[in-house]
Amino acid sequence: MHAWPAPEVPELPGRGPAVRLHDTAARALVPTPAAGPGEPARIYVCGITPYDATHMGHANTYLAFDLIQRAWRDAGHPVSYVQNVTDVDDPLLERAVATGQDWEALAESETALFREDMTALRILPPEHYVGAVESIPLVVDLVVRLLEQGVAYDVDGDVYFSVHSDPTFGSVSHLDGAEMLKTFAERGGDPERPGKKHQLDCLLWMAGRDGEPAWDPGAAGRAAGLRDGRPGWHIECAAIALEHLGMGLDLQGGGSDLAFPHHEMGASEAQVVTGERPYAQTYVHSGMVGLHGEKMSKSKGNLVLVSKLRHAGVDPMAIRLALLAHHYRADWDWTDADLESAQLRLARWRAAVSRPDAVPADDVLDAVRERIADDLDTPGALAVIDAWAARQEAADAVGGGEDVGSGAVERNTAAPGQISRIVDSLLGVAL
Ligand code: 5CA
Ligand code: ZN
Predict the structure, then answer these.
(1) Res. 401: pLDDT tops 60
(2) What does the pLDDT read at residue 37?
(3) Which ligand lies nearest to the CA atom of residue 239 in the structure?
């Protein structure tokens, strides 16, 4: 699958500090990537299930992982970035049936819209953008190996993974047994299915259902007893990440709704199949964006869509700034006021950088770098630029600065460009 065009990321002078992020598994801030400057950083971020358009929650999540990569690059790390598209799964097939569309056409058109939204928001694209359907041979290979290891089993033609074959199962999300069961049932799991060895065991391979697409598992798959079918959800991401990044990747990312079961189970599958650990060195989760007190979700339909705002003429950079005003791990509700204050801020910043000279910006770069490296404190980073803009406005108020006498304010011609490059490179906002 192809991704979307990459925005330019201006190089900044010097080098940013090591980035510290909150790791869900460690329950603490940790330095990322573990390797020193110059060493590559490997990141896998869970992609969309393309049955509806990009909403503010998606945008907020992909923005968080875009900012991490900008900060890593600024700290001297080349980045390998992989993202999937869950282009076959229950919710997609159900939506296609409900709306009378062809499921493939639905997946294709929503993925195309997602690419447009990501491009408009200046989100860095993955190096490998990989669909579930095109990854079926990779999934089959892992399922066959898990069957051979005796940690997968058949239930009426479907294949399940024994999650407790991983002795560290549970160490990503730290939920207790009761919370796991409840959350598993809410997020696509089937704890009550008869024939499973343990309620939490998850689907690896689903035999084809009437009227649903199914793929031939190939000779090795058939020899292992697989019927025509399709991948389970968690193994899809494990297979794609192992193929393109390998074990011990620096960061597995997604929204906080993916910590359990998705990232917990994917990690266990990868760790058991390879016999290595950890699957990922850090697990980073963004908060949930809601609307009117409820998590924004395609299934509930309470959506503020990126494309709808764009088509109404809203500047995507204002959308980006509206999201940046919240910490990436916060859960918050989108309101019109978020967008209005972002539009004011964008106009103010643009006015401040569009003059031939401005108050010096020498201390701004270090301050923004320091805020971002501290678990992506974007509200703090915006405050640094706001303070510079306020100094600029105050300088204008004391009289244009033409004559630098007592009480007048120093200006220089480099400052507007410096600020534009910092804001572009580290925050992704084109002024
Ligand atoms: N295809 C799977 C991941 S493999 C999936 O969860 N797709 S999704 O379309 O439902 O979500 C895509 C990404 O957006 C996930 O990282 C998810 O955690 C995130 N996300 C979904 N809803 C919200 C929300 N309301 N706020 C923030 N992030 C969200
Ligand atoms: Zn995933």
Answers:
(1) no
(2) 83
(3) 2
Q: How far is the CA of 234 from the centre of ligand 2 (A)?
A: 6
Instruction: Tell me the average pLDDT across 115-132.
Output: 98
Q: Given the CA of residue 288, which atom of ligand 1 is nearest to it? A: 26
The CA radius of gyration of the chain, in Å to the nearest whole number, is 24
Q: What's the residue count for the chain? A: 431
Chain-centre distance for alpha carbon 339 = 21
Question: Residue 400: pLDDT above 60?
Answer: no
> pLDDT category, 300, cuts 50, 70, 90?
confident
pLDDT above 60: residue 169: yes
E strands, 162-264, in order: 202-207, 229-231, 251-255
1 is written with which tokens? Answer: 């699958």
- Closest protein CA for atom 18 of ligand 1: 255
Question: What three-state secondary structure class fits 261?
Answer: helix
Report yes or no: 289 and 334 within 8 Å, Cβ to Cβ. yes
Q: 376: which DSSP letter? A: -
Tens-place pLDDT, residues 322-349: 999 999 999 999 999 999 999 999 999 9
Secondary structure (DSSP) of 44-107: EE-----SS--BHHHHHHHHHHHHHHHHHHHTT--EEEEEEE--SSHHHHHHHHHHT--HHHHH
CA 260 / ligand 2 centre spacing (Å): 11
Residue owning tokens 């049955």: 51
Give me ligand 1 centre to Cα 118, in Å: 14
**What span, in angstroms and rounded, lies between the C-alpha atoms of 265 and 169?**
8
DSSP helix/strand/coil, 224? coil
Q: Is 297 in the pocket of ligand 1 (CB under 6 A)?
A: yes
The answer, yes or no, to whether residue 399 has pLDDT greater than 80, is: no
Residue 159: partners with Cβ closer than 8 Å, 6 or more residues away: 143, 147, 152, 153, 203, 204, 205, 226
> CA–CA separation, 256 vs 329, rounded Å?
8
Taking the centre of ligand 2 as the mean of its atom positions, its distance from the CA of residue 262, in whole angstroms, is 7
Strands 28-32 and 41-45: unpaired
Which residue stretches of 283-414 are H helix?
Answer: 306-311, 316-324, 336-353, 364-373, 378-397
Distance of alpha carbon 388 from alpha carbon 366, whole angstroms? 13
Q: Mean pLDDT throughout 163-188?
A: 97
Whether pTM exceeds 0.85:
yes
pLDDT above 70 coverage of the chain, percent: 98
Give the CA-trace dihedral at 246, 118, 90, 300, to 10 degrees.
Answer: 130
Least confident of 191-205, 361-375, 394-408: 394-408
